[in-house]
Amino acid sequence: MSPAEPEMPEMDPLPTPRFITAGEVPGLLSMRECIEAVERAFLALAGERTEQPLRTVIPLPDGRSSFLSMPAWLGDPPALGAKLLTLFPGNHERGIESHQGLIVLFDPDTGSPVLVVDAGPVTAIRTAAASAVATRALARKDASTLAILGSGVQARTHLEAMLLVRPIRRVRAWSRTRTHLEAFAREMEERHGLPVQMAPDARSAVEGADVVCTVTGASEPVLRGAWLSAGCHVNAVGASTAITRELDSNAVARSAFFVDRVESALAEAGDWILARSEGAVRDEELAGELGRVLTRDLPGRRAPDQITVFKSLGLAVQDLAAAALILENLKDG
Known about the structure:
The chain is an alpha/beta fold. It has two domains: 18-122 and 317-332, ornithine cyclodeaminase, domain 1; 140-315, Rossmann fold. 35% of the residues lie in helices and 22% in strands. The chain has eleven helices and 15 strands. It has an eight-stranded parallel β-sheet. Strands 1, 2, 3, 4, 5, 6 and 7 form a seven-stranded mixed β-sheet that branches. α3 (119-138) runs parallel beside α4. The mean pLDDT is 94.
């Protein structure tokens, strides 16, 4: 007789990952909670309690579209996963979003997939939350005039986020498309009860502003350094590749230029890379990472009249922090 085969332990069934649609996200991810979660992610990054390689970008044969992979591990809150994203600029002609994707969350103890989330609304909220963290850390406490360049989804979430961290009383907005600007102003006035002045050009929106958010799809500068008032803080959000930028070299050179992650910025932040190529700045002049300002390892604003910039590229740990918050809220519900 052959020896008896050892009995295999009975395996527990794997959990079924929960899928969260775009329409469900706002009810599970408030801006106020996301700001705090993203700040914790910045602190974890500064404390080396994260692992995340540079995002992988695969160009597609049409020469315009691409597929992006952004994996990461986050120590606080514990999270493991990735954002998978497609960028199809031609989708605008089809009437659909150019950026589409999913965030996949795994149990950091077992490796089991636990959550799949539509990345669109999460990205919109967590990106604005990151700008809010930067504004709270770098902008003057009395900043009350906000300029927004752009009128899309990010313009909407950024206005909401800025109202949570600074006493904003005046809002000026500009967009290349007047009908989009009118819709944005009307919707935001109804939602927040605050007048939104539609500026005829970007300069008119920016001059005299205490906080500026650039959230456009521009590949060439829409913000000139000459327009920035002393003491202004800028959240530069829209451009996210090494060959695109929203800020001109003068804006970069005039400012203390903070980033979400130095490695990412030196590889992907066209606002900095192109200014450097024009001789306006050197890499050693980069002010540093926002997380190190939060830990007080780096000074933030040094004087009331200093101009500060936060260059946001978006980090996978921010996506994981937001997805982990969604998962927590699902459990609590």
